[in-house]
Each structure stands twice: as structure tokens, then as C-alpha cells.
Amino acid sequence: MTAMMYYSAALSAEPFEMASSSRPPQSSSSKSSPNVPKSGSNALLSSSVTSLSFLVALQLFSRLFTSVLNQALFRLASPSVFGTAAIQFELILSTILFLSREGVRNAILRSKGTDGSKSKSKKTEGRDELDDAHVKQLNLTFLPVLLGVPLAALTSVGYLAYASEEVRKQPHLTLAVTVYAIAALVELLSEPMHNRAMVELKTDVRVRAEGLGITAKSCATLGVLFLDARRGKDEWALVAFALGQLVYALTVWASYARVFGVPWMKRPRAKTSGYFDKALLHLSATMTGQSVIKHVLTEGDKMMLTFFSPLQDQGGYAIAANYGSLLARIVFQPLEETLRVYFSRLLSSSSSPAASSKKDRRQQAADALSALLQVQAAVSVLFIIFGSAYLPVVLPLVLPPKYLATSAPRVLGAWVYYIPVLALNGGLEAFLSSAASPSDLNRQSRWMFGFSVIYVSTAMLFYRLGLGDVSLIYANTVNLSARIIYCLAFASRFFGASSSSAASPTTSEARVPAVHFGISSLIPSIPFLAASGLVAGLVYSSARRPAVEAAIRTGGSMSCYRRMCWSMWGLGLFWE
């Protein structure tokens, strides 16, 4: 929760106004311009911080609940079953969902929603055009369902055709894969309502829907596993995970439908103009094509594990990744989604915006991104210091003894250095996807192909060096570092160039003056680095640390209540 407060402060703190002294004073006309009212920017900022809080609360609840569930799953499901469900089935699900909806989601966020107050002041033809534009945007949100049907069929059939012999021997595999594909399609039916909630910043609706879905999924999965374990056959374990995912999709859809009703595609009044907005459809196609490469990079570890690692090792990797990604999913994923909405709205065009007003918005975006990077850099240093110091002490408490002999401890150790890179990359790519023009996105797609080559070659190199499954984490770290450099270069060009805004592909903008953006904020101050180095030395040189590690290894979780353990935790908390 401390990290969440840091990131909320980065969005809401004064750095948005810190460059005002260096900007030319606005004329009275620009101050009263209705195009970009200051209250509108403040309302957007307040909504974004509220949205971030809701999303962090959702992820905190879901991940803690899932962690409790996993403790039971580790004992009810064998490592082979857990590896199949958490690695291979999740890869099937993410492939269907990500490739079907990611491009449309980003395009909808960058659309210029319709304003009812404006439509009242227009003539009948103008209202008809606005209604048609709204209908076409709504119709676009159904595109993921149309894409998902053939994609689900191809993905499921392809997986079953090329699954290893070890996977095929598991009971009811075909049934489980089929249920997962159906669950993905049901979840895609929620996309029109999900996009409406995100565009209207109704984050509470999404939090309730996904929170109920996660609760229902966890209870359904655990219930089927428990009943199967009581029969002593371990026959329906894979189906248990599949049914849990289907229950989640149905619960989310029902929760959204209760608030928004069931949406349907509509025919525009101008029937010859087509069902979709052409500009947004083109942008969606561009982002969907880019998402193919991004998906390979994001899920590359699961792909390599599926083809090259035995199921036992996949289970150990899945458990380590589940714990390692807790912070990333609780804080960084909601932050990235909130930033995508925030920057998309802040940099989107309104009708005939004044250049001075556009410059203010660009400067506000630059200050927000700079403050975010500064906070992330500082928190990352502290996380590496204390995470690497306390991880050996925590491992015996969270991992069952049979998993301590696997690669799980080494994978979690690599996550300590991977999480800070993941955080920086998430915020920067959220800004890039919100501000880039279609030509910028095409250019990024070409670079993404190069990043995928870097990832694969680095992973193979580390495997040859004998690092095992940890190679995937280190390769991802190298890959994300290259993507961070690319995003920083884009941000410098975007804020430094005197050009029209790239945030809207549908309108031509007045040329906007360059604004200040400092990459130097990524580097923490010298006093902070010096103090952090001193703290690291004190923590690592603590004479109690080896004794605490040995006590927990031999005595288990009850050793945490011993005096020596409390003194070591206190040392870390005092210096932190």
C-alpha cells in the first residue's frame, strides 16, 4: 500500500505546475478558453487517482485471495496439473483475449466521446452525425467477439494437436481446453460494457464485477478440487480450473449487464457509411497487429516452458511467478491501465483547441510522466535492497518444502531485479500507446520484432550457460530494458518536437510548441543513493541474518515469533 500512495502522489502532486514559471503568461482569452478548462484537467486528474485506488484495491483483494487459494491448490493439485493449468491453459486464454481485444481497447480510449451538451446546440444533421459516430464507436467494441470466435477455435485445435505426450495423458484434457475457449468467448462478450466503464471512468463498476468474478472463480475451482480429492482419483483437476474460469467470465458479464444492460450492435442512420468508424478501425488494426509481437514478448516465458520444460518444472516456475508477480499485478498493472486512460484523455483533441492550451496539456503530461519515473526509480532502489536481503528468510514461509528443492527459489530471486524494470516499462509503454500516432505505432512494431529477437537469443544464451528456468526472467529483464530505452527516446521526441499532437488520428491539429521533459529524473539523487548504499551494507552485514535464516529453515513459520527474527525485521523497517 505504501507503493500505491507513492504512485498516487506522483499523479496528484505539484510537479504539474512546477514549470509554470518558465512558461509565457497566458492571455485572458486563453485563460477563459472553453476548450481546455483547468477544472476539466483537475477533474481528469482526480478521476484518474480515484480509478487507480479502486484498481489497486481490486488487485490487492484478488491477489491476496488467490494466494490463500494457491496454498490449498498446492496441496490438492499435483505439480503437473498446476503447471498445465497455470502455464499452458493460461497461455491459451491470454492468446485469445489479448489478440482479440487489446487493439480495440486502446483505440476506444483514444476516441473523442460524444457530448450530449454539444449535440443540443447543433442542427438535426449535426445530431445525426454525432449519433452515427457514437453508434460506430459502440459497434467497434463488438469486434473482439467477432475476432475471438475463429481465434479461440484455432488456438484450441492447435494446442490439442501439438500438445506433448505427457500433457495428453492427463484425463479430460479436451474437455478442459474446450471449456477454457468458451470462457474466453464469454469474457469477450463483456467488452462493450467494460469499454464503456473505462471511458466513463466508472472504475467502481469494474472493481465490483471483477472482484465478484475472482471470488466465484476461486470458490468454484477449490470446490471441484476438494470434491475430486475426496474421491481419491485426481481425475477432474484440469476441469476444475476450466470451470473456475468459466464461472469468472459469467460472473463478470452478469455484473456488467446488471449496471449497463445488455448492449447490441446498431445500424447507423447513414447506412452507406458502414458499421464502424474507419479511423478507429484502422487504429485498432494497427494496434492489434502490434499486439501480436507484444504478446509474444509478454508470454514468451510460458511459450518456451510449454515446449521445452517438463510439467513438474512448469509447476515450480508457475508457483514462483505467481508470488513474484504479486506486486506487479497489485500495483503496476492498475497503474498502467490508469495512466493509459489518463494520458489518452489528457492528450486527446477537442474541437479547434488553442495552441497555448495544447501546450499546457502536453506540459502537464510531461510533468506527470517525469514525476512518475522519479518515484519509480527511488522505490526500485529500496525494493532491490530489502527484497534481495529478506527473500531467503521469507522463502521457507511461503513455499512448501517440496518446492524448495526446485528452481522456484532461484526464479523468485531473479524477480527481485525484474520487478523494477517491469514497473518502469509499464508506465512508459502506457504513455506511448496513448500519445503515439499510427506511424509511430508501425515504427514501434518493427522495433518490437527486434526486441523479440533480443529476448529469444538472450534466453537461449542463458540456457546454454546453465542458468535453467531463471534464464527466462533474465532475458525478459534485458528485453524490457531495451523497450524502456525506446520509450524514453519517443517521449523525448514527443515533448521536444514542435509539432501537432499525435494523440488523435482523426483530426488535424494546430502546431504545438515544445515543452520541457527531463529524462534525468530517472536517476535518483546522490544523497539518496549514498543513504541507500549505507542501509544495504547494514542489512547485509547484520550478524543476526544467517541465524534467522537457519532458524526459519528448521523451525518453520513459528520461528518468526522468536526474538532474533523480530529484531532483524525491525532493523529493516527502521532503515526503510
TrEMBL record:
One of its GO terms (cellular component) is endoplasmic reticulum membrane. Residues 20-37 have a biased composition (Low complexity). The keyword Transmembrane helix applies. The chain crosses the membrane at residues 43-61, 81-100, 140-161, 173-190, 236-259, 368-395, 415-435, 447-466, 472-491. It is found in: Endoplasmic reticulum membrane. The keyword Repeat does not apply. Pathway: Protein modification; protein glycosylation. Keywords: Endoplasmic reticulum, Membrane, Transmembrane, Transmembrane helix, Transport. Belongs to the RFT1 family. Intramembrane glycolipid transporter that operates in the biosynthetic pathway of dolichol-linked oligosaccharides, the glycan precursors employed in protein asparagine (N)-glycosylation. The sequential addition of sugars to dolichol pyrophosphate produces dolichol-linked oligosaccharides containing fourteen sugars, including two GlcNAcs, nine mannoses and three glucoses. Once assembled, the oligosaccharide is transferred from the lipid to nascent proteins by oligosaccharyltransferases. This is Man(5)GlcNAc(2)-PP-dolichol translocation protein RFT1. It comes from Ephemerocybe angulata. The lineage of its organism: Eukaryota, Fungi, Dikarya, Basidiomycota, Agaricomycotina.
